[in-house]
């Protein structure tokens, strides 16, 4: 079995995965969303302190599995350096104390493997990864051959929801709150721009849309926003945010074919996005794969699933070599 640790942002999570069967034996996650909500975003120092409290508590529940462990896996990049450090330090200590090899896992690969938890892999697959930190399209041919086809020039899809929620004082994380408000709003009341509409490039950008929303809020805000204003802004923003992704995906598939398509990452929970992609895949005759909702946001089960494959390839690191990286290409 492999014990995996995830602490790249605001979720403290540990999982135990059986190597041969890929079965998830144990999985627990403690989210810090509530503690960060009043700040309208993740406060890195607070997040690190909460990981330092939560991770040992979860680890205590795994003690009985220690004799069965063959490796310790941990997310080492990308993420917040102070929070990644909490997981990596725990992983180093466990690797030393139990004399087990250490596996460094890329968090983004983890999101892709959330599709494969207790399941076989789907290759080749074109994957849309939408999270708080990333908006990417990845071509995954097999375990080791993955190519980045598109990324964002500035903010990510999920982050734009977080920022729009913060502007309207709705708390964190913004995605679910903006989605809920949007369901009660008029998506045609505000004509927000669809980013990079004229650009032939397959890339994303959310800062312009975010600023258009900010200006609209300021304009209305002179007299304070009503509940209906909030719902209409949410619906109109979400419409443009999703239209942007769909335009770029449609552009991409003008020159490309694929059998399988998948959406992963915390923001893949977005209903409007899921529905639009479902329709598109149907039109194109592509099979659509979604990770289970409970595995969309950050968790250690997906890290453990990547680690199983790395273990089979003996893709190990050492306590001296493992490095925490905020960003990776
Ligand atoms: O993958 P994740 O848990 O953490 C990162 O690795 O970033 O994703 C969290 C992000 C947050 O920005 C959150 O607002 C967004 O996913 N999110 C959503 C929805 N649910 C979560 N964004 C849009 N619509 C949603 N329903
Ligand atoms: Zn994530």
Automatic annotation (TrEMBL):
Alphabetical GO biological process terms: tRNA threonylcarbamoyladenosine modification
Record keywords: Acyltransferase, Cytoplasm, Iron, Metal-binding, Transferase, tRNA processing
Any one GO molecular function term: tRNA N(6)-L-threonylcarbamoyladenine synthase activity
Chief site of localization: cytoplasm
Catalytic activity: L-threonylcarbamoyladenylate + adenosine(37) in tRNA = N(6)-L-threonylcarbamoyladenosine(37) in tRNA + AMP + H(+)
Subcellular location: Cytoplasm
Annotated cofactor note: Binds 1 Fe(2+) ion per subunit.
EC number: 2.3.1.234
Enzymatic class: transferase
Domain of life: Bacteria
Binding residue positions for substrate: 129-133, 162, 175, 270
Gcp-like domain segment(s): 25-304
Pfam families assigned: TsaD
Protein purpose: Required for the formation of a threonylcarbamoyl group on adenosine at position 37 (t(6)A37) in tRNAs that read codons beginning with adenine. Is involved in the transfer of the threonylcarbamoyl moiety of threonylcarbamoyl-AMP (TC-AMP) to the N6 group of A37, together with TsaE and TsaB. TsaD likely plays a direct catalytic role in this reaction.
Family: Belongs to the KAE1 / TsaD family.
Protein known as: tRNA N6-adenosine threonylcarbamoyltransferase
Species of provenance: Halarcobacter ebronensis
Upper lineage: Bacteria, Pseudomonadati, Campylobacterota, Epsilonproteobacteria, Campylobacterales
């Amino acid at each position: 079995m492999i014990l995996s640790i995830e602490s790249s942002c605001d979720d403290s999570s540990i999982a135990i995965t059986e190597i041969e069967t890929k079965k998830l034996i144990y999985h627990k996650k403690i989210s810090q969303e509530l503690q960060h909500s009043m700040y309208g975003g993740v406060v890195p120092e607070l997040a690190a302190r909460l990981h330092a409290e939560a991770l040992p508590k979860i680890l205590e529940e795994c003690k009985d599995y220690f004799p069965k462990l063959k490796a310790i896996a941990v997310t080492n990049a990308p993420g917040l350096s102070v929070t990644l450090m909490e997981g990596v330090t725990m992983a180093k200590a466990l690797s030393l104390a139990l004399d087990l090899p250490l596996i460094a896992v890329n968090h983004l690969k983890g999101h892709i493997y959330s599709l494969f938890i207790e399941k076989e892999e789907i290759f080749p697959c074109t994957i849309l990864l939408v999270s708080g930190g990333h908006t990417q399209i990845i071509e995954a041919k097999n375990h080791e051959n993955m190519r980045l086809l598109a990324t964002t020039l500035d903010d990510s899809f999920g982050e734009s929801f977080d920022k729009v929620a913060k502007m309207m004082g709705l708390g964190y994380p913004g995605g679910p709150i903006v989605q809920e408000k949007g369901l009660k709003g008029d998506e045609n009341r505000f004509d927000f721009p669809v980013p990079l509409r004229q650009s032939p490039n397959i890339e994303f950008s959310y800062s312009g849309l975010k600023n258009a929303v900010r200006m609209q809020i300021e304009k209305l805000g002179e007299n304070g926003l009503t509940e209906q204003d909030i719902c209409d802004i949410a619906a109109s923003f979400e419409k443009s945010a999703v239209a942007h992704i769909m335009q770029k995906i449609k552009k991409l598939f003008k020159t490309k074919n694929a059998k399988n398509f998948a959406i992963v990452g915390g923001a893949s929970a977005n209903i409007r996005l899921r529905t639009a992609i479902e329709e598109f895949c149907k039109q194109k005759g592509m099979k659509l794969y979604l990770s289970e909702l409970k595995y969309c946001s950050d968790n250690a089960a997906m890290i453990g699933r990547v680690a199983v494959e790395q273990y089979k390839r003996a893709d190990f690191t050492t306590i001296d070599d493992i490095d925490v990286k905020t960003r990776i290409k």
